[in-house]
Amino acid sequence: MSLDVSAELLDKAERGEVSDAEFVDCVRTSLPFAWSMISRVVGDLRDGDPTAEFADNVTPPPDEAARGQLLRALASDAIRGGLERHFGVKLAFQNCHRVAAFRINSVDGDRYRKFISPVGQLRNQSPELRDC
Q1: What is the pTM of this model?
Q2: pLDDT at residue 132 above 90?
């Protein structure tokens, strides 16, 4: 299961009354490793060079549970979209751990297109990542 959903939040969802803030809070508490990694990458982008188009993570998760959280967060359109709206960035993902946060105005720019391209994916492979 991807998210730990309280009975109250599930009732609200059944009525179609869940706000983005409630959904994102559920993601934050359900997937704490993924939340902390994405928060850190977004913080690196915001606190770094203001002309940088993106910031990324290249450190693998510490264990399979953490890796699973990251995969669940980024494989779900709803979760990824909620995180992108919350942080005001476009998230991109390679392998089992390389998460990048792009400034919205950089989407469809050269660096973004290279990051999400098949060539970018292939160039980011290594034997250590084969089972990630």
Answers
A1: 0.86
A2: no
Domain encompassing residue 109: 7-129
Instruction: Provide the 8-state DSSP code for 85.
Output: H
Query: Which of 21-60 are b and which e, b meaning 16 or more Cβ less than 10 Å from the residue's Cβ?
Result: ebbbebbbebbebbbebbeebbebbeeeeeeebbbbbeeb
> Residue 121: enclosing H or E segment and its boundaries?
helix 118-123
In the three-class reduction of DSSP (H, G, I as helix; E, B as strand; rest coil), residue 99 is classed as strand
* Token pair 């250590």: residue: 128
Tally the domains of the chain: 1
The answer to whether residue 1 sits within a structural domain is no
Q: Is residue 87 part of a domain?
A: yes
Q: What CA–CA distance (Å, rounded) separates 46 from 7?
A: 35
Residue 53 has pLDDT above 80, yes or no: yes
